[in-house]
Design a protein that fits this description.
The protein starts with a helix and ends with a strand. About 15% of the residues are buried. By secondary structure, the protein is an alpha+beta fold. The protein has 8 helices and 8 strands, in the order H-H-H-H-E-E-H-H-E-E-E-E-H-H-E-E. The strands form 2 sheets. It has a 4-stranded antiparallel beta sheet with strand order 2-1-3-4. A 4-stranded antiparallel beta sheet has the order 6-5-7-8.
């Protein structure tokens, strides 16, 4: 029994290394959900074989070999035929184009505004107003093309006297006023409604995204 368990573990480890080689030199963050399924299924095969004495080494070898062959041909097919690649691996989705947020695509991918803001903060972007174009990559990450005026200063072209900006807060999320965020910012609903009226948006339900900062004021994207 112990001998079989040892062999299965060694074979499972070798199979995992082979699969990693088949996937290519990808970082873990670059793996698509479909790639992740590879390792999950392999883990399931290994787990079942370890704890079920009825599964012999030959059965385990056959399952591992068949799984590796399937992965190999799927990877080859995704490289050769673009429709298969799009079906299995997906493609980048442009959520923001020239500053306009595509709410249909946003909702189709079951995203939340705070998720988007978190992804932007990880790239050093603390307000949506800086984003000209934004792509949702197949691995779930986002790629941002900021407006030129928000690009980092390079080659010593420093801007004298540039003012610091306060972090933004999300006050309106897909038509819903976030009361707890208002309170955190030291504001109330009456203040928000007055500010929206000044901007020409009396009904917050028409607003898909509404952020505010002490230095920049309100920034609004409608449906």
């Amino acid at each position: 029994m112990y001998h079989d368990t040892l062999l299965k573990l060694v074979i499972g480890l070798c199979a995992l290394l082979v699969i990693v080689r088949l996937l290519g030199k990808k970082e873990l963050a670059q793996l698509t959900p479909y790639d992740f399924v590879y390792t999950l299924v392999l883990g399931g095969i290994l787990e079942e074989s370890l704890f079920d004495e009825k599964i012999k080494i030959t059965h385990f070898l056959f399952a591992i070999a068949l799984w590796a062959i399937l992965i190999y041909f799927i990877e080859r097919a995704t490289k050769k035929w673009n429709p298969i690649r799009l079906l299995l691996k997906g493609e980048p989705v442009k959520l923001i184009s020239d500053g306009e947020l595509d709410m249909k695509k946003f909702n189709k991918h079951h995203l939340e505004m705070e998720q988007l803001r978190t992804a932007l903060r990880k790239q050093g972007i603390f307000t949506l107003r800086e984003v000209r174009d934004l792509f949702l990559e197949p691995d779930g990450d986002v790629t941002v093309n900021p407006y030129a005026r928000f690009e980092p200063v390079t080659n010593g072209t420093l801007q004298d006297g540039a003012a610091e900006e306060e972090p933004t807060v999300l006050l309106i999320d897909e038509g819903e006023v976030k009361e707890e965020v208002l309170a955190f910012a030291g504001k109330d609903r009456k203040w928000l409604m007055d500010e929206l009226a000044k901007e020409g948006y009396p009904d917050p339900k028409r607003i898909a995204y509404g952020e505010w900062s002490e230095t920049e004021g309100l920034f609004i994207k409608t449906y």
